[in-house]
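Subject: Protein entry, chain in single-letter code together with its fold tokens

Area: Proteins and the way their chains fold up in space.

Attached in line: The record itself begins immediately under this heading.
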Amino acid sequence: MKHFLLIVFCSFCLTGIAQTGQLTINRVSQMPDLPSPYVMRDWKDVAVKYDQFIYVNAHTGDYFPLIGTRTPVNYPSITPIALDTYIGSPSTTQAEGINIIPSMVGATLVGINKSNQGGINWVEKTKDFFNKANGQNVYLNGSNAGSGGDWWYDVMPNIFFYQLYTQYPSISDYQTQFVSVADRWLAAVNAMGGRTAPWNVPNMNYRAWNLATMTGNSDGVKEPEAAGGIGWLLYHAYLETGEKKYLNGAQQSVEFLSSLTSNPSYELQLPYGAFVAAKMNAEQGTSYNVPKILNWCFDRGPLRGWGVIKGQWDGKDVSGLIGEANDGGNDYAFALNGFQQAGALVPLVKYDKRFTRDIAKWALNLANASRFFYRPYPSSQDDFTWSSTYDPDAVIAYEALKERDSHNGNLPLRATGDAKRNSWAATNLGLYGSSSVGYLAAVINTTDVDGILLLDANKTDFFLENAYPTYALYNPYATDKVVTLTLPAGTHDIYDALSETTIKTSVSGSTTITIKADEALLLTYVPAGTTLVAENGKLVGNDVIVDYHYGYDFTPDLRIKALGVANTMVEFGQSVPVYLTVENAGGASYAWHDDQGAEGTFTTSEFTWVAPNLAGENVLVVEVTAGGKTVTDSITFNVVESVPEPPVVSAITSENLWQPVSSQVVFTVSVTDDEDAINALQFDWTMTGGSLVSQSGATMTWQAPSTEGIYLITCEVTDQDGLTAGKTIPVLVKKSGTDETPVLAYYPLDGDTKDYSGNDFNATMQGVDETTDARGEEGKAYLFNSGSDLISVPNVSSLNFQDKITLSFWVKASSIPEETFILSHGSWEQRWKVSITPSGRLRWTVKTNSATRDLDSSFPLTLNQFYHFTAVYSGYSMELYADGELDAFIQHSGSIGTTSNSLTFGRKDSGEASYYLRGVLDEVRIYHAIVPPDEILTLKDKWYEVVTGVEDTQGSVQIYPNPSAGVISIQSNATMSSLQVFELTGKTVPTTVEFQNQNTARLTINTANGIFLIKVKAGSKMIVRKIVVQ
């Protein structure tokens, strides 16, 4: 009777919907039932041939090879692969996790064994994306990357790894990596406020989360959709391990997502959140708002205008594609996003069958329109010549499609991308999007009726176990259609979850079914003769669920969400607060009992349990009864006479902030223990490089490596109770300087904006005013005080170097009402920038092909105070120096992005007047080099770089002969550290310098005759003399 009433109720509530029981996705309802023209590619063929193109076939010609090898970072025994992000990428060692890992997953989905393809185990080569050496201990977009810059670059590589793990679980280290990923993201959820004792939902409204510092990044556009991605990870960690802590973390994450009141759509993670919300509702009895979250996956969101595109471009249906859905004539769709959303949402229909019709209709539109990413289908395209020459099967997709391309004469339906415009690559053919085509291919199957697809609802449900084949079909026609199904081996009954009937019995080989006009089916192939039984709102056969919401029963039931305590190790007689979180418990009664026979009842969400005076395990069971149903949960306590306290490790310190290569360094660990003296503790030191020389008590001497880098030093301290605590610190190892580093561009800003390096990177200025510099000298710096104030350097290719950079400057901020830019070349979106955050900290940002990372100063700037800062990107690190001293550093790697934008002082770029500097800027130096720390210490005192032609007669320096024929001897009573020669204009003159000793040098001037200025650094003095060459 309950079954019948539920069906009647649903039919009544959903009148006006084309099919009984189906809910509408608003944006899908605006798409055509059958897109026109209908041209369906063989997506499985595309996916297989794409894999062959990248991993099997040999190529020669422009921009090849696409694939190569690189030096391992985390697993020295393997040879990681490099794969271009775009055709024509400039780097030969480019490697992005969001490109390489899904290429493996997608190929496996279409039947390719990537662990033994031509004798090569490609899967194992992905392990280096697990950032072990730098202590992140999760998958990231690069092998030596950092978290905290952009959540989708931090979370998605882990989702891709979890998918690959299900396909190749026996790969060495995968089991350990799987648990580490879960533990790290659970720790992040807890650090964001997730709790079970008592229950608390974390605040996940951040742009990203730094796993090293366990702090959030609130700058820029926030990405709260990451709660869905993290929930997906933690729920599947729970299914794989059975550890309830992961279920709690998943619930907290998805509860945060479900509680949002504004669409958080940003990139890829929201559809994964919709899927896991539906799956947890079906399997765990949660009550997340799937209709809201799922509609958000399609609606245009406010964060960046992201959504699903609808309508026609150039007279052709493009509905279903995903990207910037502006609905105003300038939509911008991306291949990667459609492929990934198909993989995430098609399996959702099993867990919430109310959306089968609209998801199947959307998948039809998406699969049809996705052909436009490939030659020859778009109306116009950027790189036809390369594609037609080298890609005969058209398996390399363009990164994006533009409704009307304003960069190419407003041509309609243009296959394009961001790479060429931003100088990232020579073409807009994007491998990183193409690599996910296997996800679309896995779920799409054609039938003998054009326009009716057979969607595999199991293929991309990656942790699925014990399930029968399940497929969704949608009839886009105005008349009923008969479709032929090819069945797997064996004899089957076919159950349709939408009509809740068995529509075929004892069929094998192939059979036909009828689909009503504009309706869908959700079919499960059940072994013939299987008895289907209704159990707790589900339909089950042979212990396999074939319908998760039988009778369309979506009513949330009584459930225990969490049972939590602060600690499960307790002392004799200890009073323990126990926190119970229950859902749908109207009129419930509550009781508890334990193994020792104690029992009780309670009426609130918290009660107190008293531990017995008996050592050992004791299980506390809680029972909740409502409406004739009882649910239980339990906690196992370890009862001891006294709970020992672990040691507390507060710090690991050394004398210096950075360490010279090959030096010996003494580290001391600061530790306290309530019970044991220092000499009773055991100290275990480990390091990711270098070697242990000796240790005594809490001190250790370390032999630093001979190679520059960031290394981790770890000390674990164990007390006599066997309890352990530890701490890990990063250590920056650098080479000391020998000669003065040549500057690429130098702007003294002493009354003009010329480049005094001699390299002619002269700047122009508008609006800025001369002001007093840090020495108190008038007219020797520039003041910025409005959005129209700007100093800019025209962009040239020689400013777009990608391997390393050092910047130095003086700055004084007068106010910081918002993020303010000091220096920028392409900003964080394309290349690098230096800014001041609203909290007053200096921020150094570098975008590479690995990730975009921020490094903040350790302190906020005091207003109206001068600071000298130096920022370094080395290829392995980002470093900040304040007044010459190392202040902060993090690991970062990859090739710096390129840009066509001007290099700007005081603004984000020449076209953006917001976020301008309010303050003073001076003495800007740009190096295409890594300036060593000991030289950085001297930069704040370098005020004599502008050569005026006025001789400094102070100082004991002898120069002879003068005039000369170009060969000069220089003697000084003080130690000479550098010699430079300039033209009177300030341009550097090429010379050869030979130091005979610290007081004598021989200098050869390799240029024509004339009058020059020689600058001698002797002791602490900088001495300038006029010389004549004739």
User: Anything to note?
Assistant: Confidence is low (pLDDT under 50) at residues 1-16, 944-954. The first helix runs from residue 2 to 13. The chain has six domains: 39-440, 466-547, 559-640, 653-734, 745-940, 957-1029. Residues 466-547 form a domain with the Immunoglobulin-like fold (CATH 2.60.40).
